[in-house]
Amino acid sequence: MKAKTPLAQAYGRFRAVFGATILFSFFSNILMFVGPLYMLQVYDRVLASRNELTLVMISAIAIALLVTYGLLEFIRSKLLVRAGLQFDDMLAHPAFNRVIRHRLASPNGGAHSTLQDIDRVREFMTGQGILAFFDAPWVPLFLALCFAFHPWLGIVATVGALIIFALALANEFATRGLLQEAGNASQGAAHFVNTTMQNAEVIRALGMEKQLTKRWLGQHDDVLDKQAKASGRAGAIMASTKFVRMTLQIAILGTGAYLAILQEISPGIMIAASIVMGRALAPVEQAVGQWKQFVAARQAHKRLTQVFGALGDEEDRMQLPAPKGNLSVQGLVATAPDAKVGITGSKPALLKGISFDLKQGEVMAVIGPSGSGKSTLVRHLVGASQPAGGSVRLDGTELHHWDAEQLGRDMGYMPQDVKLFRGSVTENISRFVEDAQDIEVVAAAQLSGAHEMIQTLGEGYDTDVGDGGQSLSGGQRQRVGLARAVFRDPNLVVLDEPNSNLDAHGEQALAACIQEMKKRGKTVVIVTHKANLLALTDKTLMLVGGSVEKFGPTRELFAQQAEAQKQAKAAQEKQQTAVAPPSSPAVVNMSDKPRA
Ligand SMILES: Nc1ncnc2c1ncn2[C@@H]1O[C@H](COP(=O)(O)OP(=O)(O)OP(=O)(O)O)[C@@H](O)[C@H]1O
Hints:
Elements: H1 6-31, H2 34-49, H3 52-105, H4 114-126, H5 128-135, H6 139-149, H7 151-197, H8 200-205, H9 209-261, H10 267-289, H11 291-310, E1 327-335, E2 349-358, E3 363-367, H12 374-381, E4 389-394, E5 397-398, H13 404-409, E6 411-414, H14 425-429, H15 438-448, H16 451-455, H17 474-485, E7 492-496, H18 504-519, E8 523-527, H19 531-534, E9 539-544, E10 547-553, H20 554-574
The structure holds adenosine-5'-triphosphate (ATP).
């Protein structure tokens, strides 16, 4: 049997409460008869007999019943709100997990609205919208009462309810497609604004505001256009509904008055029938009024079903002993997450069968020209990307067989573009682990050489780094990022261009950190072209166009390259061609394919 998704389980919470709510709805709908029945008694008994005691008695009974009605309504909505909170509680963690996984698998995919979608569904399921659905089954009861008053009153009320129901259906068919398109377009426009605003400084500095505003306005106008069309259609139907509603009021009173003239019913019944018909129509009208929210909730439900259907629960993995740092990559193939399948029937490969082994305690450099796949490779080494083929094994176990939490704890990673999270320097270094000791945070900062730099910050380790670490400079961010990577001394550390923003002091600290990790027997992978860092590595992997061009001990590889360069130079001199410009002494130019 297929296991229920967390979404299905969370809906199950509502299902249990819905049973009780339907029961409450039954009683509260029965109690809605109090008003019309009171009216009937007052008109037909009290006014006819002029008996004050009867008036007091029936008023007391009516008030007592109305208090009960109020209580039932209160409990009914309380039950729903509680179910809503439980729904949210059951989904919050699995939804967050899926947003992260969806984002990893498809960076441009649309899971960004998943958390808001949960709110949208919850708000509908606990609000007025759903109550209209619970009250709807009792509509026949009220209509039956109208029939009991007089068949003609029943017929007028039933025809009225059918017309309003038909108008509600017309509303659905006339606006469904448009509202759905408007909803999707609105999501796209909001996502565009969110992602674009992250680059506000570039927008201002490069004078891109007008162009981007134009692009956003294009999307926004599309949303408005579709919403306006839908609202126009819905407005016409709403106006018709109001007209029908008021005409019905007159029709039922008129019919009642006519029957009263014929002395087939009393005037009390005439008024009571009008009230009962009002109650019968209320849920239908309420449903029409709540239509927009209903459509939004339905779309949100569809998106949630898709996200939860596509990504199951992560299996609970066995906790393995902490990895020692033996890395083995065999035939690793990577494809672009959002790429379309080409004419070959597969997505274009970014990594084309990478294989290498790295033993515990070895330090490896990854070099290669821009776009050769270095960052893609390291993302696979830390398990942030799923291989399209081949395997990445840590201590013999494939990365996705490790428990993700454990793997994260036992591994250090510093991406090319270090982003910190809103919080203090301490929280960022300690990866927001609650039981982190100050001594561990300081140890990581000292190992990465960031301790002194952190002490110069306004509030030292307590400094708030701002959104994404914006309050720190690029170099400071990178140094805090390195401290975060080496927190709790992991046995495998992967650094993607860790020195791109560092000054001379930062570079020295980085080199010292790598040396210290090497001394401690850690396995380190660094994407770099800097000679001083390359000199610290045991092995070098050169990538070109997503394939391994060279792999071997760094010394041998560079000796070969130096020899190749020497020979090329000699050949050039021989031909008395122009001398090539000298390369920077601090940078080894590895971005060209060596002519070995
Ligand atoms: N999400 C993605 N979707 C499509 N293509 C991608 C994606 N990520 C990377 N690529 C492509 O994969 C190739 C390798 O990118 P990668 O970032 O791994 O290169 P790199 O060697 O790290 O480059 P650099 O040295 O400039 O950082 C590039 O051609 C890039 O355009």
